[in-house]
Structures are given as structure tokens and as C-alpha cells.
Amino acid sequence: MELSNRQETLLALIVREYVDSASPVSSNGIREKYGLPYSPATIRNEMAELAEQGMIRQPHTSAGRVPTEEGYRYFVQQLLGEVELPMAEQNTISHQFHQAHGDVNQSLRLAASVISQHGHGAAIITAPRTQSTLFKHVELIATYGRQVLLIVVLVGGEVRQQVLVLAEPASQQQLSEAAGRLNITFENLDSEGIRLASARYPTFEQEIARMIADMMSRRDMPHSNEIVFEGMSRVLAEPEFADSNAARQTQKALEEHTFLQQFLSKVLSPNIGSVQVVIGGEGDWEELKDCSMVLARYGVNNVATGALGVVGPTRMAYGRAISTVRYVAELMTDLVNEAYGDS
Q: Which 3 state secondary structure label does DSSP give 3?
């Protein structure tokens, strides 16, 4: 569908004004505020044409107009153009990520906070998932008697620990030597690779290998996927969610991990950093009909990827949400590259 230049100008102004005010936009109000060089009759006629084409609607007989889902889509796809966060905000966010030392998973909370604050909505981010968990390093530390602390570091920086009791006492030197041999053999292997590679080792080291493989297998189970939310209360306080049923339906859908994972797997592009806008569930997701989502995939394809985005009402500041999601996705991709690049 194509609109005239004048219709596009009016639609863009209606969207921007409604996003800012949450009040229906009148022809006289928009003409006076923006000093439009069109007569009131011309503006009314063009708004009637926009309504006829499904871009705007009149919620009440005497009210102004508000954008429809189709109007928002046209605005995002045809009128918004390329948008970037102001450089000062980019520098602030980049500094925050630089200060946040640690593994990728520890950066999820920071990313969610940044997305919610700068994207002006609720944030959602899933932890990056590898094709399978990969081994990086193991340490065996003698603690008391026959007790040993098993510390396993995975590719990506995640650390898992477990206390085990040996059948026979072992010195710290013996433990360190055993760990050194396992580290050489198991580097970058998955749990199945570790089980196979451990067959040539003595019984003691086979038992350590089995525990490591079991740890990694448990982590690979689907229920271990982490999803972080931030700022949902801000979104549910918007006028669109004054109807408590709409608020409950949206919140329930987003917090149901199975539904959310299925949704993300279907709508997300495989391209890292590619931003997608889902408005009103696009007619396919009834549970999300009252909200919009701006989403992107981050990470390294065939290594480890996750998803992040902004959730809000359809009356969303799309330019700010898109620029925030794109920038944070770039930073998270850099983190994943650093953590998993050697794998």
C-alpha cells in the first residue's frame, strides 16, 4: 500500500503525537502544533482517507484519531528510517558494559536494565545457548579428609562446582596432576566427547570425567534456559493496560517460558543483529494482541546465540526501541565473541 507524501506526513505526525500524549489526535490540534501548510478541510479529508485505508481510526464519535496496527507497521517500515541512539547514550551504555566484568550470563541483568531504561519499555533477554555445553577447565582442590571440591569452568566463563568424596585419600599434588591431564584431553569437548575420551584413563579420573559430563548434560537440558525480564510494571501501568484482563493476558504469555521460546524461535531472524518489530501479535499470536515487541538475535551463529528486545504497548516509541535493541545486541554479540571465540 502506498500513501501520498501528504498522507505520509500526516500519518507520521499522528503516530508521534499519539505516542507522546496517549490522547487521540485531532485535525485542528495537529495543524496548530506543527504549523502545517494545509487547510483544516484538507487535513480532515486526508485523515478520512487514512482511515479508509485502515491506517488510523476514531475510537469515539467526537474524538480525534489514533493509529491502527497497520498504521504503526507502515510508519515503522516506510517512514521511520534508520535511527541511532544519541552518541552520549551509546558512550554511557558502552562504559557500563566495560565495567561489568565476568561471564556473559552475568551481563544479562545489566543488558535488561539498559534496554528497559533507554528503550522506554519492558526488557526481555534470553541467555545465549551453545549448540552444546563445552568444557574449558577443571580444578580439583583438597578440602578435608577425602573430600574434594570439583570446579568446572565451561566455555563462556560459567563455573559449576560440586563436592565429592574419594574412595582413597589423595594429596593436592596428585589432584592437580590429574586435573592437568583432563584439561589437556577434554578442552572444547561436549559431555558425550568427555565420556568417550575418558575411557583410557584410570578409574579415579574416569569417575571425575563422569561427574563433569553429568554436570554439562544437566546444563544442556531445555529447562535450564534463563530468561530475564525488567520493567514489566512500567508497561502494565500504561493506559492501554488499564483493562486488567489485557494486562494479565500479556504478562502471563510473556512469563510462560515454553510459549515465549516457541514465539521467539518462529519470529526471530537467524541473522545476528537483525531487528524485527512484531505489532499486536501480527494476527498470529492472540496472547500478544495488546502489545508490540522489538526484537533482535545476538551472539555467534553455530556457536552461541540469544535474543533480546523491548516489550510495550502498540503505542510505542519505535525509533528509540529499535535503536536501543540494535545497540545492546551489538554489545552482547561482542561479549559472546570474547567468551566463545576460542571454541
A: coil
